[in-house]
Write a structure and sequence with these properties.
With 558 residues, the protein is α/β, with parallel strands linked by helices. The protein has twelve helices and 30 strands. The strands form eight sheets. It has a seven-stranded mixed beta sheet with strand order 13-28-29-30-26-27-14, with helices on one face. A seven-stranded mixed beta sheet has the order 24-21-22-23-15-18-25, with no helix packed on it. A four-stranded antiparallel beta sheet has the order 5-6-7-8. A hairpin with a 5-residue loop joins strand 22 and strand 23.
């Protein structure tokens, strides 16, 4: 596998799909472009699905075509309305609109059945009573060809009657299936008489109990595309071999055996370092209580990324940066982090927060005095205006911004007998400090120079260090959730037991203080806490709870 990282962003993969579309339009094969996003409603969408969403909806938009949202709901045992609604919300949140009404494969169940009957009448499908184990045995291996089912040559009229009986609930689950009559000697396993229909008595979230036979995904998917007039069916590489079933079915049905029928094109799925992209494994994380839920900010789900503070624009940018190719690759998670960092740097208002606080007392500042100062909301965007910050005798600063003794001349934070500037305020000098019962610094006492607001000390001293603060009396208590990568290993999917790969420091919860303006922070609103990183107001909490989205710079590999 090729590894994509932030150092080769300029080497974007060639989008072969656009080349195909351009050729199809220029040749007159298609006059317009129609794509679809066809999720199975059996779980929550993740960043890999977001790549597919951006590709399908983005391609349709670029060619002035349209994209359907279709739920391939052919397995009622694993599907739920909850997933349907979450998927619709995710697509909307990412900034895309589907063409017309939401579609469901179940809308076409009657048509699917009719097409299956057509194949039976043509002698191209049959009802098979082999057990699941027998079916696997008869299918053969990669080295040995399969052998024909003893039911393969059942007369057409008898197959029609048997298939009708399946439809009417005359057989038990697992008793029989409808199989395509293709080629048991094919070098492609998927073409060795694949199953088209099976008996299931589960209640369906759309059709309830109307049906007791359900089409397999491979049978329904191509038909859904064809019925809807999809021109370019874009799938990930794991469906590459199955394209042969896709083509075979459409070629053998009278309605679709024509040159402008849908064609399937495969691209590489997203493999993101330090995460897992399997729905099954993500579900294990949730069910094993290794995360707080599908929207845990450490999860690669769209709802998790949203809660963490990722924006639709950043995810679209990420999809554009990694491009589309047919080469399996691992993508450096730093590319995703760079996308959100670059976006928030432009749009995020600035504010100050003290995550690990100690008290700073300015001994020569008048007691009971409180100043209101002005600070830019965004230092590179004057149009965003100013914000009010408060300054008084007692402040909070970050514990990491103070050392008893400056280690060297390059140290730019606060130390005894050393000057620093409080951000957007005055220059202060530390004189002494107190420790708590555990020996940890609790309070630093200092003096300030009242003539240094917005200007350098008059005696010519050069003050290079700048630290942030929050005025004590106006401060608001807040909770900060500091997130890191969920896994320590870049390829956690190789672990059978995901718990052994979990990063024990993937979440740290701190109590600190924010400016009073943060009382107005809206859920999912992004801020840059100056010198700390980008944070957003948690969308599942009532109080002042802020999730760390990403640091100001990439420090993972440093």
């Amino acid at each position: 596998m090729i590894k994509m990282n932030s150092h080769n962003l300029g080497e974007k993969p060639t989008n072969f799909i656009r080349n195909i579309i351009n050729e199809d339009i220029s040749s007159g094969k298609h006059k317009s472009v129609q794509t679809r996003f066809p999720p199975e409603p059996n779980g929550y969408l993740h960043i890999g699905h977001a790549k597919s969403i951006c590709l399908n909806f983005g391609t349709a938009k670029d060619y002035q075509g349209w994209c359907n949202l279709r739920f391939d709901d052919t397995n009622p045992a694993k599907e739920d309305v909850e997933y349907v609604e979450s998927i619709k919300e995710d697509v909307h949140w990412l900034g895309f609109e589907w063409h017309g009404e939401v579609k469901y494969s179940s809308d076409y169940f009657e048509k699917y059945y009719e097409y299956a009957v057509e194949l039976v009448k043509k002698g191209l499908a049959y009802v098979c009573f082999l057990s699941a184990d027998e079916t696997r045995e008869y299918r053969g291996t990669l080295k040995e060809t399969g052998k024909n089912s003893p039911y393969r040559d059942t007369p057409i009229e008898e197959n029609l009657a048997l298939f009708k009986k399946m439809k009417e609930g005359g057989f038990k689950e697992g008793e029989c299936v409808l199989r395509g009559k293709i080629e048991m000697s094919s070098s492609f396993m998927c073409m060795r008489d694949p199953i088209f229909y099976r008996v299931r008595f589960d209640s369906h979230h759309q059709t309830v109990d109307k049906w007791c036979i359900y089409p397999m995904y491979d049978f329904a998917h191509c038909l859904g595309d064809a019925i809807e007039g999809v021109t370019h069916s874009l799938c990930t590489l794991e469906f590459q071999d199955n394209r042969r079933i896709y083509d075979w079915i459409l070629e053998h049905l009278d309605d679709f055996n024509r040159s402008d029928r849908p064609h399937q094109y495969e691209f590489s799925r997203l493999n993101l370092e330090y995460t897992v992209m399997s729905k099954r494994k993500l579900q294990k994380l949730v069910e094993g209580n290794l995360v707080s839920g599908w929207d845990d900010p450490r999860m690669p789900t769209i709802s998790g990324l949203r809660r963490r503070g990722y924006t639709p624009a950043s995810i679209q940018d990420f999809a554009q940066r990694i491009g589309i190719s047919k080469v399996d690759s691992y993508t450096d998670v730093g590319i995703l982090e760079a996308s959100i960092r670059d976006h928030l740097n432009i749009i995020a208002p600035r504010t100050m927060a003290v995550i690990n606080p100690i008290k700073l007392v300015i001994e020569n500042y008048p007691e009971n005095n409180l100043e209101t100062l002005q600070a830019p909301i965004h230092p590179q965007n004057e149009e965003m205006g100013k914000r009010e910050i408060f300054f008084g005798r007692e402040l909070y600063i970050d514990r990491e911004d103070f050392l008893e003794i400056s280690p060297n001349n390059k140290y730019k934070r606060l130390a005894i007998d050393k000057d620093v500037r409080l951000r957007n305020a005055y220059v202060v000098r530390a004189n002494r400090f107190e420790c708590d019962e555990n020996g940890n610094v609790s309070t630093v006492y200092c003096t300030y120079d009242p003539d240094t607001l917005g200007k350098n000390p008059s005696d010519g001293r050069k003050v290079k260090g700048v630290i942030h603060f929050v005025e004590l009396s106006k401060s608001m208590v807040a909770e900060f959730r500091i997130y890191d990568r969920l896994f320590l290993n870049p390829n956690p999917g190789k672990f059978d037991d995901l718990s052994s790969a979990i990063n024990p420091e993937s979440i740290q919860i701190r109590k600190g203080f924010v400016e009073p303006i943060m009382l107005k922070a809206k859920p999912e609103m992004a801020y840059q806490f100056e010198r700390e990183g980008y944070f957003c107001h948690d969308n599942q909490s009532d109080g002042l709870v802020f999730n760390k989205t990403v640091g100001l710079r990439d420090t993972w590999n440093q």
